[in-house]
């Protein structure tokens, strides 16, 4: 087992990669703030188990029929959008990017990324100290 296979480090790497990808998506939203008919996007945060592996579905939630007495979802979309704010503020050209909201998300994402990288580097330093090389 190498030092990179530890569950904590694997989870932190996954989290850092998610933050990097989210930053790219948020940057695209800002850069398309004047593009007609553009809808902002965001990523669903991954859920990690104790081993650091991604669990559960990260896509849109699918409709499920939990009882025979429920109405079946015929003709309707088989999933719904988790972003409740989509299209909240839409300009006449159809663009729904809210720059203030995107900047807040971007700042929050950067702070979370910095926290994850700090935890990763401190974990590595702790492991090096434990084996006598730090």
Automatic annotation (TrEMBL):
This is Flagellar basal body rod protein FlgB. One of its GO terms (cellular component) is bacterial-type flagellum basal body, rod. The keyword DNA damage does not apply. It is found in: Bacterial flagellum basal body. It comes from the Bacteria. Belongs to the flagella basal body rod proteins family. GO terms for biological process: bacterial-type flagellum-dependent cell motility. Structural component of flagellum, the bacterial motility apparatus. Part of the rod structure of flagellar basal body. Keywords: Bacterial flagellum, Cell projection, Cilium, Flagellum. It comes from Bradyrhizobium betae. The basal body constitutes a major portion of the flagellar organelle and consists of a number of rings mounted on a central rod. InterPro entries: FlgB.
